[in-house]
Amino acid sequence: WVIFGNDGNMNANFGVSSVTDNGTGNFIINFSSAFANANYAFALSPGRGTGSGARIVTQEGSTGKTTTQFHLKVRNDSGSQIDTQEVSAVFFAA
């Protein structure tokens, strides 16, 4: 799990080595140890943004979910990438 800000800096984590900030609302979470396979579950939650409107966090990219990383994007209710003050992500594997 990890909680991080819009600059990719982690506020708290367990099993995450780093978060890469790829620009507005675009992040890659890097795991400390690889999962056995990519068949893990996840839950994502955006925190309150700096402006009004909904925030949505989605799995993204052709390499969005691998054994070593998870690519996500934060979007507003119009589908545009946007920053938010905080993102929480939890990963579960058997």
Major β-sheet profile: 4 strands, antiparallel
Q: Count the DSSP helices.
A: 0
| Mean pLDDT metric | 90
Low-confidence stretches: none
Entry summary:
This protein is mostly beta strands and 94 residues long. It has strands spanning 2-4, 10-13, 16-21, 26-31, 41-46, 55-59, 69-76, 87-92.
Verbal overview:
The protein has strands at 2-4, 10-13, 16-21, 26-31, 41-46, 55-59, 69-76, 87-92. It is an all-beta fold and 94 residues long. It starts with a strand and ends with a strand. The mean pLDDT is 90.
Describe the structure using short key phrases.
mainly beta, 0% helix, 4-stranded antiparallel sheet
Chain-wise SSE layout:
Elements: E1 2-4, E2 10-13, E3 16-21, E4 26-31, E5 41-46, E6 55-59, E7 69-76, E8 87-92
Antiparallel strand pairs: 1-2, 1-8, 3-4, 4-7, 5-8, 6-7
